[in-house]
């Protein structure tokens, strides 16, 4: 059955261009009322312009959809409040938040300034917090919400020259891992997209024909599914783009559990390094408590015995 967003309201941050624009257009085409947020600055986070958000709203309205623009920066707490308020004031509810706004300030770590670090964290990390923190009480109260955060292969796997960006994008995984638990009881699903697409952000690193071919539209289906009521999963990292859809995960290897009987030393670790590092039989985890699995199993066995 077709996935519909009829009667639902979505906020898409950074929706004036690139991936965010493509998400907003597809959600609106499927019936969602959309808040098109975009500050309209340059790829390094300088300046502001209302034109990109307005233009995407005009496109949505011309295609028969419903949208309002919002020009706040996600990087301030007040901006996050205004973005959520724009949804509530105009449409009376909020069901979906896609935290997509982003900038880059690439430079090798030994040349990275404090400003390069802070600006990237302000948009990606504080920006995600600012919007979600204001959306969260709405989701809890109505016992429904769908969230997609945006990470990057740069954070999951690493990319030279992106220490600030990679660290900020990995923060999304930490945030998701906690919110998937806090939202579960309220039917709030929080997943993360790791996209790849030819956009303004990637045109500095991709050749022009790649930018042209890797259209944001190849990422859209994964994000749109994850913010639909049909999606009942939470806490997943999905990579999409360039004709691929796959899950990425932080997994825990089986390791060795010598128990608490005897303290081990560094030589013991050295001797067992291969087994400790092996990912054979590795599993994704749901919460931190599971890291104490072996200890808790030992205690339970002692109690029974
Ligand atoms: N394109 C890729 O291959 C790729 C890969 C990995 C991750 N990402 C992530 O995907 C997201 C979208 O990137 P894109 O490639 O579409 O780039 P883009 O530059 O085309 O779009 C990003 C949008 O975010 C807006 N924005 C920036 N700072 C903002 C702020 N403070 N408040 C509100 N809006 C702001 C920009 O004005 C811009 O329109 C980003 O989070 C990016 O880091 C992209």
UniProtKB/TrEMBL annotation:
Pfam families: adh_short
Protein name: 3-hydroxyacyl-CoA dehydrogenase/3a,7a,12a-trihydroxy-5b-cholest-24-enoyl-CoA hydratase
Domain annotation Ketoreductase: ranges: 8-199
Species annotation: Tepidiforma thermophila (strain KCTC 52669 / CGMCC 1.13589 / G233)
PANTHER family: DEHYDROGENASES, SHORT CHAIN, SCP2 DOMAIN-CONTAINING PROTEIN
Molecular function in Gene Ontology: oxidoreductase activity
Keywords annotated in UniProt: Oxidoreductase
Family label: Belongs to the short-chain dehydrogenases/reductases (SDR) family.
